[in-house]
Amino acid sequence: MKEKVILAYSGGLDTTAIIPWLKENFNYDVVCVCIDCGQEEELDGLEERAKSCGAEKLYILDVIDEFCDEYIVPCVQAHAVYENKYLLGTSMARPLIAKKLVEIARKEGATAICHGATGKGNDQIRFELGIKALAPDLKIIAAWRNEKWTMDSRESEIEYCKAHGINLPFSADSSYSRDRNIWHISHEGLELEDPANEPNYDHLLVLGVTPEKAPDEGEYVSLSFEKGVPVAINGEKKKVSDIIRDLNKLGGKHGIGIVDIVENRVVGMKSRGVYETPGGTILYEAHQQLEELILDRDAYAVKKDMGNKFAQIVYEGKWFSPLREAVQAFVESTQKYVTGEVKFKLYKGNIIKAGTTSPYSLYNESIASFTTGDLYDHHDAEGFINLFGLSTKVRAMKMQERGEL
Amino acid sequence: MKEKVILAYSGGLDTTAIIPWLKENFNYDVVCVCIDCGQEEELDGLEERAKSCGAEKLYILDVIDEFCDEYIVPCVQAHAVYENKYLLGTSMARPLIAKKLVEIARKEGATAICHGATGKGNDQIRFELGIKALAPDLKIIAAWRNEKWTMDSRESEIEYCKAHGINLPFSADSSYSRDRNIWHISHEGLELEDPANEPNYDHLLVLGVTPEKAPDEGEYVSLSFEKGVPVAINGEKKKVSDIIRDLNKLGGKHGIGIVDIVENRVVGMKSRGVYETPGGTILYEAHQQLEELILDRDAYAVKKDMGNKFAQIVYEGKWFSPLREAVQAFVESTQKYVTGEVKFKLYKGNIIKAGTTSPYSLYNESIASFTTGDLYDHHDAEGFINLFGLSTKVRAMKMQERGEL
Amino acid sequence: MKEKVILAYSGGLDTTAIIPWLKENFNYDVVCVCIDCGQEEELDGLEERAKSCGAEKLYILDVIDEFCDEYIVPCVQAHAVYENKYLLGTSMARPLIAKKLVEIARKEGATAICHGATGKGNDQIRFELGIKALAPDLKIIAAWRNEKWTMDSRESEIEYCKAHGINLPFSADSSYSRDRNIWHISHEGLELEDPANEPNYDHLLVLGVTPEKAPDEGEYVSLSFEKGVPVAINGEKKKVSDIIRDLNKLGGKHGIGIVDIVENRVVGMKSRGVYETPGGTILYEAHQQLEELILDRDAYAVKKDMGNKFAQIVYEGKWFSPLREAVQAFVESTQKYVTGEVKFKLYKGNIIKAGTTSPYSLYNESIASFTTGDLYDHHDAEGFINLFGLSTKVRAMKMQERGEL
Amino acid sequence: MKEKVILAYSGGLDTTAIIPWLKENFNYDVVCVCIDCGQEEELDGLEERAKSCGAEKLYILDVIDEFCDEYIVPCVQAHAVYENKYLLGTSMARPLIAKKLVEIARKEGATAICHGATGKGNDQIRFELGIKALAPDLKIIAAWRNEKWTMDSRESEIEYCKAHGINLPFSADSSYSRDRNIWHISHEGLELEDPANEPNYDHLLVLGVTPEKAPDEGEYVSLSFEKGVPVAINGEKKKVSDIIRDLNKLGGKHGIGIVDIVENRVVGMKSRGVYETPGGTILYEAHQQLEELILDRDAYAVKKDMGNKFAQIVYEGKWFSPLREAVQAFVESTQKYVTGEVKFKLYKGNIIKAGTTSPYSLYNESIASFTTGDLYDHHDAEGFINLFGLSTKVRAMKMQERGEL
Predict the structure, then answer these.
(1) What is the C-alpha to C-alpha distance for residues D341 and D356, in angstroms, rounded to an integer?
(2) Nearest-angstrom CA–CA distance, D141 and D128
(3) Which residues bind L-aspartate (chains A, B, C, D) (predicted)?
(4) CA-CA distance, C139 to C26, in Å (whole number)?
(5) Side-chain half-sphere of C355: how many Cα atoms within 13 Å?
(6) How far is D190 from chain A (nearest CA, A)?
(7) In this complex, is the C-beta atom of A300 within 8 Å of any C-beta atom belonging to chain B?
(8) All residues at 6 or more sequence positions from B353 whose CB lies less than 8 Å from its CB, including other chains
(9) Is B14 one of the catalytic residues?
């Protein structure tokens, strides 16, 4: 009996060509798995396509809600941003895909998992670290890095497919290299390969428009959170995935969440990309807007560092690691009172705050106001400053005494 | 002979009332000092005003270039942002003012320095820590916290002035509480005191307009940096202060740099304010855009933490401290190769990247591109991932062996 | 009916003198509370003493196990060390004392809590922040800082007691200022006040001897941990407090855990003290010895930073804060697999490792050994280094190309 | 004309076997370079040996002072410790060796550099990253990882040597794997390969004795520092290398600086080793003892984090990186006032503090003492605590109001 391999399958040219390649070179039975994280691709007919290309079977798994609840929400709560700008859309999805591939591998009794990620990118790391963490016994085949892989262009893949009886209408033209899910879409390649170039946004954008093309009228929105989880939009209770869908429409319409970045990949190179994260950008901003009312100064500062750490971990593909769990435990602990409502106005790329309320707000008008209330005695500041500045003064006295000030 | 006190003087009601108060209660000769950090206030006639109110003398010091070169530039290089949003406009200026007050105190042989900062704010800390650090022997008088200070409203201050022969046309109406310099203007008070309220931007803004009121046409700008210092705008060499002035006009016109924040003060309370930093926001963004090309991954990550630390130190008024010097030394070291040009388009609140170049760019198109060049061998990724994920795999094997995976 | 005050009472001169002082100056009924954290003081007769001095009532609460399980263990797990040396013995106990004072205050319907901590130290902060966090409505009376407090020496306190009918055999001689509980004892004062002086250890030490006076024979001990909690000593299951008691005896006997430090207090001054933490030092070292086998590199590094943060929080008296809870959640998450046994030899101040084992050890002899096993392929290192050093090489090439290398 | 390769040569079996191997497999002229970092090996006759084995030339470079001044001192100042215990002895030396290899390569016009570090260790990374950083054009040959390398035991190396006419009296027995320089010696292998084993110290130790075998009499020593650099021992001015030599003798004699650790290598595995760093351990402790007097609380805390970061960078072989330079700039800035004298007693593994003095000490006895001096007003603590605990109290009031406290 042949061994089985699980192939992360999208239906595109790259992963399609892998099917005959796996059979020819490894003599595997190929089980294709298409994980739906919200990429909005045509899934109808995918099963026939996979089978017609030689796959034994195709699984299609809709994991959108699991993706939103278990992967996106922790990142929102951590305010995890990689290198100041990237909201981790692709990074978040990869471990979940790895997990599902492993689950199917176990179910099918497969001995290997194959993916089609490039040898220059971060995704190979994320897939493979996920698999190593969950199924260290499974063999991993990275088709593009494999010595038996000989194709180096779309043309050669198409030719290879044809030679193996696969005649699908794939185009040989390459466009941007993209990755999409419910949270974001990324774009790389073409004019973006030179950071000196302005992106060709009209050609590029998928989820929304540029600020210039956004409506001339702003639009108010409100979001409600409970313990750091988004629970309602404009007062209407919805599950997280539906809130993100609504925010994507709103954000895309109003030109929000377009990021042009040169980032440092884990494999040591800089790459340049454009990300569209319309709903996600709003969600991050809204969550932070609420936290401003609730976290104290110390907690805010340490949480910021931990959020950066969380972003690094997720970016590096170390989702299934004790460290990610520990940082998430930290973050979850801070969310206990992140409950309340935030309002803002979307207008041509801007998210403009329009009021925030929370039952756990530490903002106290009587303290903050210029007129003194009961809780704050101006004279306390005298003592505070004297001790806050004590070491400063002692040092200065010492330096003065030595004639060095 | 009477002792002398140096008074940080603005010409406004608060600091004017302090002149007779200091004379009456402490029997000082009062030397007023007005430090011009770019607040764009009317300084003509200020000398007569101060003297007519009982001051012995008035110094007016234009410190704008020192402010830009020695205080603002280090913050830009550090990308110092307090609590994700505040570009530290007021925080940066206070230590310089303290330094100048001390210099005048030494020149005049004064024994005390007096300021009119409120007992609830951060500025009292920044002034006083600056003075303690530079002149620990000088007495500090914080008028508003002083037990001899009896005025608690503008009305009572006006009355006190009149009773002491000062009849100036001060208005008893209070507006927003503001602080302005060449870098920014801050607004507090009125409707802002409740975070649930949307700011009344039409009433509030001073340096620019809202995105809605900004022109319908975007505008391209380029900035050049040498070793992390801005040196030219649109190809024209200018000193830093003039670049900031130009950027303020551009940013203000295009609705850029308006921030609405609830922040944590050093004295333990939350306060809500709106900041306008039109030029500064552009400068920060441009500098970061350039650093993306130049800093490697490790340096980028640690510099981010150090920038947060720098922001905290400056916010807390600890400018004249060994720690600020050390963090600045770190940051300056990273700026050695931050040389290049950045282009962007300003449009209705957005700073849209439009291309970046640097002779020290680490971006390498042949490495980043999908087609393999000499420098990067896909197969290296295999080894990299195996070792990068080694502990992950070892742990998983151990857990599997124990039946806990 | 009189209002009641809860007094943190030790039976010593300071807190004894506070009883009549509270009655005289505030007209309170005084309820004394003595919290036993393991200070090993004579508690017999304490009730009569308190009452004879005018107290209405005395509570004695043995909280040793709660102290060990809820306060010490988290610090051990965090490896929380303040300024590289201080194992936080006093800092850990203060919040628990504050919590118990509040509980008694609620039970008694008291309106105030009084403590006798000095106005220069950290303990006043720890007590008061604890009370503020748990009972913000209660009035706090810090006797020594109170303007009605007039005594400034032991003599004057003794005199005050006598004048109020209290004739107890207190000595007017001052010794070291000490704080003791089951975890440690601290010493300040006398010759320690000058950091140039060597401590007079023969006079000073309470819990053990110097290394010089320790036995010439070393002694082997083993400790077992489950999920980061010490559960057995030399194979014998014991509760944490009993393990600490055993370790204190062993550590004291072998001259372990004596620390001489100049530390930075929260109130801005440096102070010099000697700490004895015989059992605690062993426990920290043992726990770390075990973690070496279990935590991966990333987790180890971040946990180290979090441990430092935990130490700062606890030192600053912010035990009852969201940040402490969050950091503890992080730490607890890392302890899931910190299970195993450590052996070491105690000898004249040294804790010498003598072997460590854990079912969750990530140490893998076949990988670590020089002879290659299955899991590690030498050639992987080639790819790893190429990518690990890619940005280094790209930078160097760029510099070389510019003639700057 | 043949191309030249530079071989990092020690005279031992491994690097000796590489000479004929390089000639045979790559047809290189082999230039051997022996960098003396204080390994105290027999260097007499090394030239003849190298030549008799086929090398064209041998360079012997004494870099001990450069090692001490430029590599060790920055680590001491940073208090750089890897994973709480390892004083980086090998890590510090590797970049300097790489630098010298590159210098000789340039002088000789060589096109490649060869080293004999194992494919499992950190040293291959440190050598290669150093070479990449300084000479990205040079080819790197890692003999042990090279596919043409066929020897896998000492026996096979000896045989290979014999087959190539080299008959040197190398022993086939393997002992511990060791690396030595003026700062330390490391030991791996044999019984250490199982962390459950106690090290066989009698067999193992080279630089000193165990505490048990150390003298029964302690010994006082004093060290003087200027701006963080050790300048004198027992009052006698000496260069750093001589101070380290003296301290090595003293430390070795008194059983100091023996560390038994399971550490996480960069390549992802745990390894177990014993380090002897007798002088270095004293130097680190002494430097820290001095800093306690001089650094303020904030600076101390951030420097601690930066020291950890420095240790990671050095451990990872990233010495020649912008980040190392930046962190070092931070550290150097903090050393400006680290001037003074520290005394301690060495006794059976213990470094016991015996007094510290500095002209820049921030310790102020009149402030620290229990009796109030001018500089510290007890009542300031009231205000300090009220503001330090303000957010704590506000939160508690809010929770109380909601019935959640």
Answers:
(1) 6
(2) 9
(3) 118, 122-123
(4) 12
(5) 11
(6) 29
(7) yes
(8) A198, A260, B289, B342, B343, B344
(9) yes
Using DSSP's 3-state secondary structure scheme, residue D358 falls into coil
What is the separation, in whole angstroms, between the first and last Cα of chain A?
85
- Give me the phi and psi of A122, to 5 degrees please: -85, -25
CB C13 within 8 A of CB C159: no
Partner D contacted by A359 (CB < 8 A): yes
Nearest to D268 by CA among A226, C105, C297, A318: C297
Q: Which residues contact C231 (CB under 8 A, 6 or more apart)?
A: C224, C225, C237, C238, C243
Cβ contact B194:B105 at 8 Å: no
Q: Which of A333, A388, A391 to mutate to test the interface with C (most CBs of C within 10 A)?
A: A333
Interface test with D, best of C125, C353, C364, C404 (most D CBs within 10 A): C353
Query: What is the DSSP code (8-state) at residue D52?
Result: H
Rounded distance between C-alpha atoms, residue D90 and residue D67, angstroms: 11
Residues contacting B331, CB < 8 A, separation 6+: B74, B77, B78, B303, B306, B307, B310, D326
Residue type, A310: F
Residue with tokens 């748990």: C134
Provide the token pair at B365: 């198109």
Q: How far is A398 from chain B (nearest CA, A)?
A: 10
Q: Provide the 8-state DSSP code for D82.
A: B
Q: Is D107 exposed, middle or buried (0-12, 13-18, 19+ CB in 10 A)?
A: exposed
Active site residue: C36, C52, C154, C177, which one? Answer: C177
In a 3-state reduction of DSSP, which class is residue B322? helix
Chain A partners within 8 Å of B316 (Cβ): 388
Determine the distance in angstroms separating the CA of A132 from the nearest CA of chain C, rounded to an integer: 12
Q: Is D14 a catalytic residue?
A: yes
Distance CA C34, CA C7 (A): 9
Residue A349 backbone class (left: φ over 0; alpha: ψ -120 to 50; beta: rest): left
Q: Note the maximum CA span of chain A.
A: 90
In this complex, the residue of A297, A382, A398 whose CB is nearest that of residue D383 is: A382
pLDDT tens, B84-99?
A: 999 999 999 999 999 9
Q: Tokens representing D215?
A: 């003298």
Ramachandran region, residue D320 (left: φ > 0; alpha: ψ -120 to 50; beta: rest)? beta
- Enter the tokens of residue D221: 């020593």
Q: Encoding tokens for residue B195?
A: 């975070």
Instruction: For residues C63 and C55, give the distance between their C-alpha atoms in angstroms, rounded to a whole number.
Output: 22
Picking from B147, B177, B198, the nearest residue to A354 by CB comes out as B198
User: Per-block average pLDDT, block size 10, for chain D (405 residues)?
Assistant: 95 94 97 96 88 96 98 98 98 98 98 96 97 98 95 92 92 89 97 97 97 98 98 98 98 98 97 98 98 98 98 98 98 98 98 98 84 77 95 95 93
In the sheet that C219-226 helps form, which strands lie side by side, from edge to edge? C236-237, C229-233, C219-226, C340-347, C350-357
CA distance D158 to D148: 17
Q: Which residues of D touch C255 (CB under 8 A)?
A: 350
**pTM, whole model, 2 decimals?**
0.97
Annotate A223-243 with DSSP letters as a single string: EEEETTEEEEETTEE--HHHH
